[in-house]
Amino acid sequence: MYQLLKPLLFQMAPERAHHLTVKGLSATLATPGVSSAFRATYRLEDPALERTVFGLPFPNPVGLAAGFDKDGKYYHPMASLGFGFLELGTVTPRPQAGNPQPRLFRLPQDRALINRMGFNNEGVEALAQRLLSKGRPGKTILGGNIGKNKTTPNEQAVGDYVWCFERLFTLVDYFVVNVSSPNTPNLRALQDKEPLTALLSTLQELNVKLARPTAAVMGQLGDPGELWGEKPILLKIAPDLTDGQLDDILSIVKDTGIAGIIATNTTIAREPLTTDAGKVSAIGNGGLSGAPVRERSTEVIRYLYENSGGTLDIIGVGGIDSPGAALEKLEAGAKLIQVYSGMVYAGPGLIRDIKQEILKRGV
Length: 363
Description:
The chain is α/β, with parallel strands linked by helices. The chain has a single domain (2-361), classed as Aldolase class I (TIM Barrel), CATH 3.20.20.70. Helices cover 42% and strands 16% of the residues. The protein contains 13 helices and 13 strands. The protein has helices at 2-9, 14-29, 34-42, 75-79, 124-134, 157-168, 193-221, 243-256, 277-283, 294-307, 323-332, 341-346, 349-361, and strands at residues 51-53, 56-58, 62-64, 85-91, 104-107, 112-115, 141-146, 174-178, 233-237, 260-263, 287-290, 313-317, 336-339. It is globular, with a radius of gyration of 19 Å. Residues 219-227 have low confidence and may be disordered.
C-alpha cells in the first residue's frame, strides 16, 4: 500500500507528507476490523526476537527513532506496525516552534533526508498529559528523548534536562539525552567532556532520588506489573566525533554509570552524496540522515563496542533502509536498532522484513 502512495506523497512537501501519513494511519487503525488486519500484515512476534537490554524486556530489537513522534500523538498506531520500542521527542521544557519552514528536505537519489527542524515540539507537559491519557501501547517499550530550549544558554542547560527528566520519570521506560542535534545553536558544545559529565552526573543523581520513593510507593500499592526503579539513561551522539572524542565518550560512560549510547544522530557532513551539489547547497544547513550516514554510523558503533571490550550497550541508528543494513549494525556491536529515514523510502514493511532476517540469520 505504501509503495502505491509513495509517488503521491513525494510530490508533497516532506513535512506535510509526514503529517498526512501518520494522521492517515491513525484514522485507518480506528476503523473497525482494520487494526487486526494491519497487525496481521506487519507484526511478527517470536520469542527469538525478544531482548533484555538496559534491564528492560524488549519484544524485539527494532525501534522507531526520535523525531518521528515528538509529541506522543501517534505512538499507539506506530506500535501496531510491530516496533519493539518507540522513542518519543525530542521534547523540551517549554513549547517551541522550531526553525522556519521549509526545514525538511528529501534527497531521493541518495535515499536521504536533510532536516533543520530545531526541536519543534509542544513542550514536555503536553507529552506527559498524552502519555497519562492514552496509556501504554501493550508491551512496546517507550523512551523519552529530552533536550533544551533554544533560548536556554548552555550554562543553564542542565536545568532544562532535569525539568524534562522529572516530568517524564514515571511515564517512560528509558531516557535519551540529546546533545548532538546540529539544529539548535551551540547544542553540540555540550558533548565536550566537562559539561557532558556534569549533565549526566546530575541526571544520574536525580535518577536515584526519584527511584527510591517511587519504588516504595508502588510497593505499597502492590502493582508488580510496572517497571519502576532507576531508569536507564542513554546518550545520543553525533557521527562527526573524532576517535579522541569517542574515547572521551567511553570515559564519560564509565565515570557516570549511564546505561548506554545511541549511535548516531544526523551528520553535518555532505559526503558522500550523488545529488547535484547545487541543489544540496541551496538547501542549506541541517542534519543529513539516511543511506549516506550508514557507513559512518556503523564505524562509530564498532569503535565504541570494540574499545569498551564489548561491554557497552548500544542502540544503532543511521542509514537502516534494508534488512542487510540492520544486520550490519547488529554485527558491529549494537544490541538494538532504530529506523526513521529508511522507513520513508522503504515503507513500514521494513520493520517486518528486518525481523524476518534477524530470525533467519539467528542474530
